[in-house]
Design brief:
Blueprint lengths: L12 E2 L6 E3 L3 E4 L3 E3 L3 E3 L4 E4 L4 E3 L3 E12 L3 E3 L5 E9 L3 E5 L3 E3 L2 E3 L3 E5 L3 E3 L3 E3 L3 E6 L3 E3 L4 E2 L2 E6 L2 E6 L3 E3 L2 E3 L1 E6 L3 E3 L3 E3 L4 E6 L3 E3 L6 E2 L4 E6 L14 E3 L15 E4 L4 E6 L3 E4 L5 E3 L5 E4 L6 E4 L4 E4 L5 E8 L4 E6 L2 E4 L2 E2 L4 E9 L1 E6 L4 E3 L11 E3 L6 E9 L5 E14 L7 E6 L1 E7 L1 E7 L3 E4 L10 E5 L13 E2 L6 E6 L9 E6 L2 E5 L1 E7 L2 E4 L9 E4 L7 H4 E8 L9 E3 L2 E7 L4 E5 L7 E4 L14 E7 L13 E6 L2 E6 L9 E2 L7 E6 L2 E6 L2 E3 L2
Parallel strand pairs: 1-4, 2-5, 3-6, 4-7, 5-8, 6-8, 7-9, 8-10, 9-11, 10-12, 10-13, 11-14, 12-15, 13-16, 14-17, 15-18, 16-19, 17-20, 18-21, 20-22, 21-24, 22-25, 23-26, 24-27, 25-28, 26-29, 27-30, 30-32, 31-32, 31-41, 33-42, 34-43, 44-49, 45-50, 51-56, 52-57, 58-64, 59-65
Antiparallel strand pairs: 33-36, 35-38, 37-40, 38-39, 39-43, 40-41, 44-46, 47-48, 48-50, 51-53, 54-55, 55-57, 58-60, 61-63, 62-65, 66-67, 67-68, 69-70, 70-71, 71-72
């Protein structure tokens, strides 16, 4: 009824095989083994302690009054099927084998080795249990509820037809176990070393730890009519061992978060966030807006873990950063949501969106085609390529404009089918025109009419018959004008003919080029008659003496004309004087000729007016014999021009007792004979009855 060996431990304690042992209170302490071989009844608050040995009870032990504390440096083995405990505290250095015919409550316990506990009722606890080795707990139909701050160092295997609830503050390793439902929680990871079977419906197997390792294979969890749920922190820390599951759920806190899936599933506290991004290329042709058209392939869910596939709602439209042409443009698509998340056939829950807007530098806006087409144009040549028409614009987006539109001819020259080119434009699109790919199209229907130009031949242009034409013939622009830098080239001509009369002036080669429609106005060109001069030979006669036959020449024929070829009629020289006229000078006039075609007019040489000299009458002297010779007293040198001109040479003559001076200015020297003399001319003239020879440098008688 009191302490046994409390002060000095007994060496050992062994009860006999017969009889019964009763320990009503206190402590039984031995240094060696304690062996209970007969039925033992233990009262309230009894402690059995072996400080150096084992505690063994082969016979039934009844300790229903309170708490039985079993403490041994070695093992504890109370394995009789008839045992009946209320609460047992265990503190051993070795293993524990404990059996209870009914329910059992474990108080605070520390077991250095393995724990083997068999009960025919509930197995519960009221204090933390630490087991250094494996734990095997069998409770028959009773529940196993070991949810304290336990630390099971080895595997724990539970067998019951009731519920099983286990907790380990550190890692928990489950061996082969069965229960109607089994819930195991751990402050560390949970490892399966054997199959876990459950029979109930609902959440029949629940495992919750920081990690999960299945070393028992694909059939490790058999939830019976219910399902299994494995709660962990991160699938990256787990090894599922081939377990097939129906769903996964993230952002799930055990005991807090409702389970969203059906069937077997893994639940993780990790809360993966999906960042929706845009991939590939989002392209369009510039349309003046920043609207982007998207397809599902443009969306990617970045941040999925554990091989999951996250499907977004993939909005069909987004926006470019601006409306302008460019590549690698930022595109954003708001309104993104998660439609589904799967892993194979399993449904995945709990993904969050880091943003409801998908972004990516995937935009491409290509330039829109803009066509500028030159318009047809007609104008009169003005020396420039300017065109009054304005090109047409095709492809311009609403709101944009094209200003400064202008076009020009490809060249300034007159013609049809002329090419017109777009020469200038400015695209106002807010992007320097870069939003368009501009194509200019020429127009080949342009017309430049030649400019009207009237050239009129100058009036009053003439020449004298036989002269050369006064080239170039004169003209003037009388209507229109030449463009600066342009000139007239070529020359006028006239209709053929050289006889006196009017001849039309013609355009001939005169041109301003193909850029002008030149109208030519003609005027007549007049050939006026040339002048032929009757030149009478001077003659001297005395009053009363018969006139000689007057002679002379016609001078002034043009070119190859001669009297014979250019005139008709008979040349004659006459005087209006008579030999009875008073001594003096009188005209000798030529006449009798008519010019062919009127090419000549006839005039009298001025000298003709005094060509005839009538000297006073002198009575003849009686004959006195032969006349003395004529002596040249003095000769004056003068120029001898031609046989038809008056000479300027003079001679002073003496005949007998009379002298007389004769000059060319007073006498018309008539050539009657010409001899070949050197160095000058030689002429024989008749001077009265005196024959003289006048040479280039003097005068002598023959």
């Amino acid at each position: 009824n009191g302490n046994v060996g409390s002060a000095v431990p007994l060496a050992f304690l062994t009860t006999g095989a017969t009889g019964a042992t009763g320990i009503n209170a206190g402590i039984v302490r031995t240094s060696g083994n304690q062996s209970y071989n007969n039925p033992t009844t233990i009262g309230v608050g009894v402690t059995l302690q072996s400080t150096g040995g084992n505690l063994v009870a082969a016979a039934p032990v009844t300790a229903t009054s309170g708490t039985l504390s079993l403490s041994a440096a070695g093992t504890v083995s109370f394995n009789n099927a008839a045992n009946n405990f209320n609460t047992v505290n265990l503190n051993t250095g070795g293993s524990v084998v404990l059996r209870d015919a009914n329910a059992i409550v474990l108080g605070p316990s520390s077991i250095g080795g393995a724990l083997g506990l068999t009960a025919n009722g509930a197995v519960t606890q009221i204090g933390a249990i630490t087991v250094g080795g494996a734990s095997t707990i069998a409770a028959g139909a009773g529940p196993v509820v070991l949810t304290g701050a336990n630390d099971f160092g080895g595997d724990i295997a539970v067998t019951t037809t009731g519920v099983a609830q286990l907790n380990d503050v550190n890692n928990l390793t489950l061996g082969a176990s069965s229960a109607s439902t089994l819930t195991a929680t751990a402050g560390g990871g949970i490892t399966l070393n054997g199959n876990v079977n459950a029979t109930a419906g609902g959440n029949s197997i629940v495992l919750a730890g920081t990690a999960f390792t299945n070393d028992a294979g694909p059939a490790a969890l058999n939830p019976g009519a219910g399902r299994w749920l494995v709660w962990s922190t991160n699938p990256a820390l787990d090894s599922r061992g081939g377990l097939a599951y129906n769903f996964k759920q993230y952002n799930a806190i055990f005991g807090v978060t409702p389970v969203l899936g059906t069937g077997n599933g893994f639940l993780y506290s990790i809360a993966p966030a999906i960042t929706p991004t845009l991939v590939g290329t989002v392209s369009k042709v510039y349309d003046g807006t920043n609207i982007a058209t998207l397809v599902p392939a443009n969306f990617a869910a970045v941040g999925a873990i554990d091989g999951d596939t996250v499907t977004l709602n993939n909005p069909a439209s987004g926006t470019y950063d601006n409306r302008n042409v460019g590549t690698n443009k930022p595109v954003r698509a708001p309104g993104v949501s998660i439609v589904t998340a799967t892993n194979g056939a399993a449904t995945v829950y709990g993904y969050q969106l880091a943003s409801t807007t998908a972004t990516g530098n995937v935009g491409t806006i290509t330039a829109a085609p803009l066509t500028l087409t030159a318009a047809t144009n007609t104008k009169v040549y003005d020396g420039t390529v300017s065109s009054a028409a304005v090109p047409t614009v095709t492809g311009l987006v609403a709101g944009d404009t094209v200003t400064g539109l202008a076009q020009v001819y490809a060249d300034k020259n007159a013609g049809t089918g002329k090419t017109l080119l777009v020469s200038s434009y400015a695209v106002n699109d807010g992007n320097g025109g870069n939003n368009y790919s501009v194509t200019t199209i020429d127009n080949t229907t342009g017309i430049i009419h030649p400019a009207a130009l009237t050239v009129t031949a100058a009036a009053g242009q003439t020449k004298v018959y036989g002269d050369a034409d006064p080239l170039p013939f004169a003209y003037a622009i009388t209507s229109g004008a030449l463009v600066a830098g342009d000139t007239l080239t070529g020359a006028l001509s006239r209709t053929a003919g050289e006889n006196v009369g009017g001849y039309a002036l013609t355009q001939n080669t005169l041109t301003a080029g193909s850029n002008y429609a030149l109208a030519f106005v003609s005027n007549p060109f007049t050939i006026t008659p040339a002048t032929l001069t009757y030149l009478a030979n001077a003659a001297t006669v005395r009053q009363g003496t018969p006139f000689p036959v007057f002679t002379g020449t016609v001078e002034g024929f043009k070119g190859a004309d001669t009297q014979a070829s250019a005139t008709t009629g008979t040349l004659a020289f006459t005087t209006p004087a008579t030999n009875s006229n008073t001594a003096g000078s009188y005209p000798i006039n030529g006449s009798g000729l008519t010019a062919n075609f009127g090419n000549y007019v006839f005039v009298q040489a001025p000298a003709n007016a005094t060509a005839l000299t009538i000297q006073p009458h002198v009575e003849p002297l009686p004959p006195v014999g032969p006349l003395p010779p004529v002596v040249i007293l003095q000769a004056y040198t003068g120029a001898l021009a031609s046989a038809a001109q008056s000479e300027s040479a003079c001679a002073e003559l003496e005949s007998g007792s009379e002298t007389e001076t004769l000059c060319g200015a007073q006498q018309n020297f008539r050539a009657s004979e010409q001899r070949n003399l050197t160095p000058g001319w030689r002429r024989v003239i008749d001077l009265g009855t005196v024959s003289l020879i006048i040479e280039g440098d003097g005068m002598r008688t023959p």
